[in-house]
Amino acid sequence: MRLLVANPNTTQGVTDRIARVARAACAPGTEIVAVTAGFGAEYIATRAEAVLGAHATLDLLANHAQGCDAAVVAAFADPGLGAARELLSIPVVGMAEASMLTACMLGRRFAILTFAVALEPWYQECVEYNGLAGRCAGIFCLDEPFQAITSVAEEKAQRLVALAGRAIAAGADVIILGGAPLAGLAFDLAEQVAVPMVDAVAAAVRQAETLAALRPRKPVAGTFRRPGPKSITGISPALAGLFKG
Amino acid sequence: MRLLVANPNTTQGVTDRIARVARAACAPGTEIVAVTAGFGAEYIATRAEAVLGAHATLDLLANHAQGCDAAVVAAFADPGLGAARELLSIPVVGMAEASMLTACMLGRRFAILTFAVALEPWYQECVEYNGLAGRCAGIFCLDEPFQAITSVAEEKAQRLVALAGRAIAAGADVIILGGAPLAGLAFDLAEQVAVPMVDAVAAAVRQAETLAALRPRKPVAGTFRRPGPKSITGISPALAGLFKG
Amino acid sequence: MRLLVANPNTTQGVTDRIARVARAACAPGTEIVAVTAGFGAEYIATRAEAVLGAHATLDLLANHAQGCDAAVVAAFADPGLGAARELLSIPVVGMAEASMLTACMLGRRFAILTFAVALEPWYQECVEYNGLAGRCAGIFCLDEPFQAITSVAEEKAQRLVALAGRAIAAGADVIILGGAPLAGLAFDLAEQVAVPMVDAVAAAVRQAETLAALRPRKPVAGTFRRPGPKSITGISPALAGLFKG
Amino acid sequence: MRLLVANPNTTQGVTDRIARVARAACAPGTEIVAVTAGFGAEYIATRAEAVLGAHATLDLLANHAQGCDAAVVAAFADPGLGAARELLSIPVVGMAEASMLTACMLGRRFAILTFAVALEPWYQECVEYNGLAGRCAGIFCLDEPFQAITSVAEEKAQRLVALAGRAIAAGADVIILGGAPLAGLAFDLAEQVAVPMVDAVAAAVRQAETLAALRPRKPVAGTFRRPGPKSITGISPALAGLFKG
Amino acid sequence: MRLLVANPNTTQGVTDRIARVARAACAPGTEIVAVTAGFGAEYIATRAEAVLGAHATLDLLANHAQGCDAAVVAAFADPGLGAARELLSIPVVGMAEASMLTACMLGRRFAILTFAVALEPWYQECVEYNGLAGRCAGIFCLDEPFQAITSVAEEKAQRLVALAGRAIAAGADVIILGGAPLAGLAFDLAEQVAVPMVDAVAAAVRQAETLAALRPRKPVAGTFRRPGPKSITGISPALAGLFKG
Amino acid sequence: MRLLVANPNTTQGVTDRIARVARAACAPGTEIVAVTAGFGAEYIATRAEAVLGAHATLDLLANHAQGCDAAVVAAFADPGLGAARELLSIPVVGMAEASMLTACMLGRRFAILTFAVALEPWYQECVEYNGLAGRCAGIFCLDEPFQAITSVAEEKAQRLVALAGRAIAAGADVIILGGAPLAGLAFDLAEQVAVPMVDAVAAAVRQAETLAALRPRKPVAGTFRRPGPKSITGISPALAGLFKG
């Protein structure tokens, strides 16, 4: 199986981290194709940056989905996910979506932990969009500067363990570490936290494999059927081609 | 007062219609500046097209908001609205948001009527995003082809009157005509429908004026404070400038 | 335009304050007609007092709406609003409703601040009645005596600024100052609070103007059509006349 | 035990019917004191009439609660119920509230049936106010004229049996006959309907007895503590006295 | 009237306490038949123990309901209640259900207090199952060991009074003491708590009497009609007989 | 990997079908251990039968989970799932849960289709328990007798295709075929239905593999920690052992 992992952030170092975790987490025989956004923010943290990220996600999928069995939108909060699901014929999953749904099988309420308060509103809207507010014990954010987006995971590991304790006290049965820059950390910290942790990249990769294995048909009805033909201008040829079908 | 009306669709004829209705509906002394998306879909109907529309909205605001007192995102379902509210210092309202909130002051439940079933999923997500599903009696769509997006309002007027009757029977106290191509029609049909109708462009223009008149400060806290500085690449200079603040 | 501003409280001094703020906030050319309840509580704070206030609201509208283009129920939590909307042919808005809906265009979640804990249950029921609990970050009340209802705004101004800080920390993007006795204070304190503030009287006046400008028809269907004829006894002749239509 | 049954409608014939059903349904030894509103509508059907009914309810309780162990607000949708609960020291229940909560112990979802579509919006708001929309399969109304409010029960009995069938098909496990003019009918029709029926007067009387038997204290905290002292003018001496405590 | 009170816990001492409170709380002339689970947990605190308790409830009802007018499932959170309601022809109520619905007539939001944190998840699911999360101000649990399940009420009485104060500060209008081992305590502590308290056994007994008095028919439609005939094996003869009808 | 698939129904033929589909759907190298309930109903359709099924599930897990990496509760609506998750150290998933969460990654709203109306209430409660009512377009049931539970899938295949059409018209983006007796049918009918279909056994098997691959720790905090030690009597030695830990 061949999985496209599309990072809507422009930082190659984050893509490298994602790819490493994806390769460690995937099933034997799965090939990971990891690509980085060609435009937008170094890392997406706000609604405004997510608008660019959604466009970048579609661009990446248009350029690289060919020959893949499924795709992962590799930014937590899943910019462009619904749009991608309309346009593509292969399954597409988001890191936030996949980790929240996986967490629902491990506990009654999950908490999302991340490294910067700036991410909270966007994550909150993502929880609500997925209709999972009733399963969410809260979004818990560190509120302090960090040195570099590519090493924030290691820098803040112990602070996140402490934050997990607060989330558990607030009712969380499961902890999701949100944000692609934290990929892999859930495995490293598993022994230090009293409830199961979900690594968002690993969950997304496994869920993408699951969807591909179930071989769902591309809908020709319902809200994820392909958009009808329409005049689209001013975008990359690859993406324009994707709209043409 | 100077209002920017940004059409995220690329069809100039729709912008012309919006501008005409906006000028008829605004308060004396308000100047309407109407602009058309530089890229994207001729008219937005799906999540995928809305991703492009959101980017186009930000681009339009970056290029034209200077000197305006408020702005209107002139596509029903409001692509890029939250992002615009983060980035701009002037109030920004969306056509869907403004018409739904206005409708809430005219009745207990509103219905949204539009001319194509393709629009339904995107509108539905917009209602839910605004937390107004409990105030919505349904989204009612015509399910038949139309001749041209610039004349669909006149072509389908009587079909929409009949559809309004169905919406009222389903519990609607107020009818919103959704979709920029229907701008102005609510006034023309008012006598033929048994409950109040809301014209989405007129509502958005009046609400933008209201917000401007109330002179709200740009937040420096909360979820609509400006995003912090970040490296953003590959977008238009004007929009990049908007991200810089 | 001529706006009736009906204060369901019996304190003339509160009406005077409301009228002053309404005149400062309205559009050029709008005339404000401010009237005071003929019976009921000096200021409404509980469900029991609101029952009297709702009746007083209808009485005021019956006596004074003639010749007006729209009306405002000028007590936060809007006693009698739905009833007024059934009986009258002109638009009627409530202070709570108008300020909450306005706040929804300025942020994701609003908080309501007021000067007495006694008001909290009634306000909470009003938020829920409007279906806006999901948009409300909380109702925050001072819990301490005040000297006089006509000067509580000035007396508690700085305490409310501090309370706004707590509301923002709890997730509020916008602050509504609730309660007619606080009319005008949102403008005075705007610079001291980190998010936009909404003055409830100003919002209600502007929204009443907006509705009047949109010229909605009086419904003859739906839940706000006029009640059918019925024998009504024991109330003021003016109000009895309003029920006769 | 002595139960006050307060009819906020002004029709004595409806009070007579309510009293007859109450006396048949109460426990041995319970005395029913049934009283009729001194002002307001012959029967309440809309929000506007309910405003008068709420005031009338308080007036009745102020004049007649003395010496009673509990009180019933005997109009479906419970005008003035929350206010009464603040002011009185004895338990007060409403017909709608009592029958809905009783129905919750007989099935998963209840339906409310009544004899006139005019009642639907007010009933719907009552269901929502009680937080029971998730337990309600719908409000089903006959849509046809009736001859007299005092004999509508007998006139429409068989039409209501047919309507019950529709409600069951829509998911109702229990049928509530709403509206004081239908008092008693649920017992008469029990054999003709495939699910349990709840008579709203009988349920209210039994629930009032239950509350009285449990001897709950009058709260001195929480949202149903008595309102603090305040200047109240222009109302009946008895009701003014109730506000004084 | 003859009421079956079925304790799904295996501790006879808890049944004795329940029976004592039930006999003190029931109407004159009601006979209480109290029985104890033949298998399962000494007291149910978790989902796993509740699975056994649900089976034990059905077994008790199968063996003892004959000749009774109504039945009470006497463990808070009501194991097996829905199943019992399908199988039996007499009304069945649960302690949690009855006390929550009773509390809804005494206040806007209730809190549930209990003696062990282990009970919280199960109680929380019960509140949600009943669709009453919007009426619940929280579940408050003591977090400390106790000496014996049969005397935990007396041991923790004053700790529960303090906990009630916290619940009231968090918005509770009414306090429910949850857990059969606390039966009777609400009456003893009534004077020490500022809002009404509901004893869950007393409420369940009175509600069972109320349902019996209303004489609801056994449904032959809806979701509580009897299950159709089916091959059931490996259970007690009495329970197998109940499935046979 | 070794997966326990526990059928809480007592019909071996259904277990055989489940096992066949599970083996076709699992990843290479996964071993399926399929076991059948030792007591209870031939197939579970109601709340009462599910009480027995929950107990039977725990019994099966107690006897067979040893040496397995994860377990599946193989009856749609997942009897005993939460309890199993408390007691076991390996991941446990339910057919309903797994298929609904999987469906959420394929569309906005799913519909559940099944072969008998008797199943609807239990399925509905399962959807609500999972907090997914907002993602569910409805439960659609055939309403007609069938010949045998082991061949109902083949017998009703074309009726279910027609029913899927109705579900799609009602807003479903994805179709779940619910009920273990329908296992495998989703794959056979995929070409005949316009949206993706989810086979509940296949989804559960793949999700169980996913959870096992993620290696979540057994919680020692939160609501799925193991119950504390307690006296449990009257159940099978294996299950008693599971409670002892």
What features would you describe in this structure?
- The structure is a homohexamer of 245-residue chains.
- With 245 residues, chain A is of the alpha/beta class.
- Chain A folds into two domains: 2-95 and 204-244, Rossmann fold (3-Layer(aba) Sandwich), CATH 3.40.50; 97-199, Rossmann fold, CATH 3.40.50.
- Chain A has nine helices and ten strands.
- Chain A has helices at 12-25, 47-64, 81-87, 95-104, 120-129, 152-169, 185-189, 200-214, 237-244, and strands spanning 2-7, 31-36, 40-41, 70-73, 92-94, 110-114, 136-141, 174-177, 197-199, 232-233.
- A four-stranded parallel β-sheet of chain A has the order 2-1-4-5, sandwiched between helices. In chain A, strands 7-6-8-9 form a four-stranded parallel β-sheet, with helices on both faces.
- In chain A, helix 1 packs across helix 8, helix 2 (47-64) packs across helix 9 and helix 4 (95-104) crosses helix 8.
- The longest helix of chain A is centred in the N-terminal third of the chain and has 18 residues, at 47-64.
- Chains in contact: A-B, A-F, B-C, C-D, D-E, E-F.
- The interface between A and F is large, with 54 and 54 residues.
- Strand 3 (40-41) of chain E pairs antiparallel with strand 10 of chain F, so a sheet runs across the interface.
